[in-house]
What does this fold into?
Amino acid sequence: MSRSLTADVLVIGGGATGVGVVRDLALRGIRAILVEKGDLTHGTTGRYHGLLHSGGRYVVKDPQSAQECAAENEILRRIMPHCIEDTGGLFVITPADDERYAETFVAACRACGVWVDDVPLAEVMRHEPRLNRKLRRAFAVRDAAADAFLATEANAADARARGATLLTYHHVTDLELEGDRVTGARCEDLRNGEAVTIHAAYTINAAGAWAGKIAGLAGLDIAVVPGKGTMVAMNHRIVNSVVNRCKPPADGDIIVPIQTVAVLGTTDIAVPDPDVFGIEPDEIALILAEGEHLVPGVSRMRALRAWAGVRPLYRDVAAVDDRDIPRTYKLLNHRTRDGVAGFVSIVGGKWTTYRLMAQEAVDLVAADLGIAIPCRTAVEPLPPVHGAPKSGHLTLGGRLRHVESEELYGDVICECELVTRRQLVDAITTGGAANLDDLRRDTRLGMGPCQGGFCTYRAAGLWHELRGADDAGGADAAAALTRHFIQERWKGLAAIAWGDQLRQQRLDELIALEVLGVDLLPAAVIADGARHPTVVTEHAAIATEYHAE
Amino acid sequence: MPATDFIELSLDHCIKCTICTAACPVSAVTDLFPGPKYVGPQAQRFRRDGEAPPDDTVDYCSGCRVCNEVCPTGVKIMEINTRAKARIVESRGVPLRSWLLGYQYLIGRLACGPLAGVANLFANLRWVRVLAEHLTGIAREAPLPSFSGYSFRSWARRHRDPHAAGATGRPKVVYFHGCATNYYEPRVGEAAVAVLEHNGFEVIIPEQGCCGLPLLSNGIFSHGRHHHQYNVAQLYSYAAQGIPIVGTSTSCTLTLKEEAPELLAMHDEQTRVVAEHTYDIFEFLRLLHERGRLNTRFRRIKRRLPYHAPCQQRAHRIGRPALDILELVPGLTMVESEAACCGLAGSYGYKVEKYRIAMDVGAELFDFIRASGSDLAVCDSEICRWQIDHGSEVYSVHPIELLREAYGLAPGA
Ligand SMILES: Cc1cc2nc3c(=O)[nH]c(=O)nc-3n(C[C@H](O)[C@H](O)[C@H](O)COP(=O)(O)OP(=O)(O)OC[C@H]3O[C@@H](n4cnc5c(N)ncnc54)[C@H](O)[C@@H]3O)c2cc1C
Ligand code: SF4
Ligand code: SF4
Ligand code: SF4
It folds into this structure.
């Protein structure tokens, strides 16, 4: 079985960058195909901290990055208000920090054009009752919380509406080379094992921490060192605004309130392989200990989950011209750099600057293809998406308000995150979800306190009701999805198994194993010799955030 | 973490087991209320500090605390709900009805006494109730108690302790009567005084105000705070001397013990000392008995009576002291109801949209009492008693009245 597709441009990687690239291409009328080996946001984008940077974090050490963040911050607020909660941000000097850093910080903000305002401590305490009462200074910045699932979905929807093709569960196994030119890629459709060849005049490598691996397929050496960062989500919104320590950036110095949780983080540890890493107990201990400086008592509050993502840290070994590409992210033109045409890599950067990165990559590619249409992503608003407000900014209470106003409380499938039956039915029947974990990225299913302990079974039932007839494995498919999702959720619980969350895990475990015997269900379905289209449990592509050795 | 926080933070203990929702008497009878798990720890995660709560259904929580009692992990569900209601009130303003229900004692003050006859007549005219329902949203059928022709305090002023003559150095006890006893049911206070005096106590009845619970449960926290501060100021000097404060209204004593300090985050020394010295009257009598100090010379009362422990009483978490004491009365058999709540729950059942719910919640209790065949029921809470009278048409009394009878003390003594 094999297929073959053709496009002007092939984009590899379905994270913020790749999807941003494909939208930019579509807006310029360039025919594009994007391939992603998992679901969209399955990589680092779906595991980030959730912070729309004001730039404040980088003003002292990395002014270029700070300026980019500050500019992109304003642009993203305009084009995707429905994916951003305007929480505002604070930089605070705790008793453990050097008060003199304040002046350095403020001066650097001014120099970079990063908006900053000195806030009286009494006012800070009024808005943030749980913050350390012994803070010495506090500065307001334009940080915000951003939902990368929604934002990526919005970019993808717009790209599709403008003619782009986005193929998930398509794993690039080889690049097609004709002489010194990349002419496309060979993929495996992980849902059925089909070989898919994509021919394209240009290939953009937006594979994040995996970009080195992709470039390696063309025999190129770009050193992308995956930098693992671990985060801990707390059970509820401990703070109302993003809170940063006002000191040189280090581990565990930020709390981001996003959706129903507050995320503490992060760490930064180089790992050899972006697919294989675990969460170490001392990382968690460090994050909580640092959190204590900001919110005394936080380490005794309920942790919900821990997870990690891998930063695409770019270290250019092949000493080439640094040109005028900022060091925050790198656009590598492999024609000028390595003599391989039709291929660029866009690596590094942050979520906040994804649009700028996409613009720069597409500018280069468009110029090479002789297309003179300018970039419009900075002005063209993103379309509405499910789970985001119809207008205005994202708000914490939005979901509850929705359930209340439509009187849907009898129809809530995931109670913790208030995911309604309607939302789930939509995601199951219209999206490209291949398993329950994909539904989670679409709807927040199973992301609350019980981590799928209850809703997994309801969702699996719905899945079977709506898709069972098409599933080759029938009920076995739903059963395997159930096991898969529970395993996915439990991975994030192992590292924080104490206190309230341990008690929750015990109840979840009793329900899963003692009441329902989930461990006795079939783990995967092999139907007619082919892998089942919905179940990819056994595939390495799904072995994601946590490998318990 | 700030001290004000521990109610909300208790949401962290929720393991989503749904036991609270299975037990909640309100969600059992209406689909309008999504239940304690949903409106409590779940919704709380979607409420932002300092902003109006985005939800309305929490208003259907009656405040009965059955959820708190059954929650295996100690989530302060009812308090989370009450605070959310207060924030709704704060952001949307206090409706007239809430003022009326919150300040019922003021109405009591006006109507109790010589005007009671007229007031009762008036309050029971059907057209008055229909009009009032339209104007204020207070359900026309809900059981309004009758104003008393005299207040308890006026009785207390005239009362002379029969044991006082010649006695010196008797132990003292403070009696907190509450509004209901003062304006509607002085007989309960008279019985309490008689029983305490019979046991050798000098009963002190200091100045006191409404405990403020009706204000708290109607979300008018700022006024509730004033009331509690006033009462603490009146009671502290006694508590500081180690004089116990006893009450016959299980809701008033619960408010003094923990509802007001917790909901209002009043953690000062005086509030704490008053809370620590407050007892439900039967809790107090049981302590006396445990120390061998309770007078147990009771007359035989050959009766079998239904008893309902009101939700406010259960929230004290002291078992059933009224049953423990009444058990000592020869011949008397008390049969305890298993119903969770009478439904009225303070001022809940007075609200027109909740009247039906309250009656449905109370149905199990009404059936139990009717099935007992007794013409008398026993219950510690005044509000429950009115609802029992209304729902089952069986007259009900406070257990202290029964105890007075067992002591052979005539009413009015
Ligand atoms: C711990 C942590 C916290 C962070 N916090 C923030 C923050 O708060 N704010 C912020 O702005 N930035 C933050 N970042 C940075 C930000 O998350 C990343 O820069 C951004 O998400 C990268 O997006 P991307 O699309 O380039 O990469 P990714 O999202 O990783 O996308 C790359 C995709 O390529 C796919 N892929 C890989 N190999 C193949 C293949 N062979 N075939 C097909 N597809 C393939 C992967 O599955 C993946 O989905 C954080 C990063 C980390 C690690
Ligand atoms: S206090 Fe009573 S009515 Fe309110 S949620 Fe709890 S059990 Fe239900
Ligand atoms: S009983 Fe307690 S732990 Fe169980 S769902 Fe209710 S609040 Fe949560
Ligand atoms: S709760 Fe107590 S003091 Fe308060 S209104 Fe009722 S009787 Fe009055």
Notes: The pocket of iron/sulfur cluster (ligand 3) is lined by residues B 14-20, 36-37, 40-41, 71, 73, 75, 77 (CB under 6 Å). Chain A touches chain B through 37 residues (CB under 8 Å).
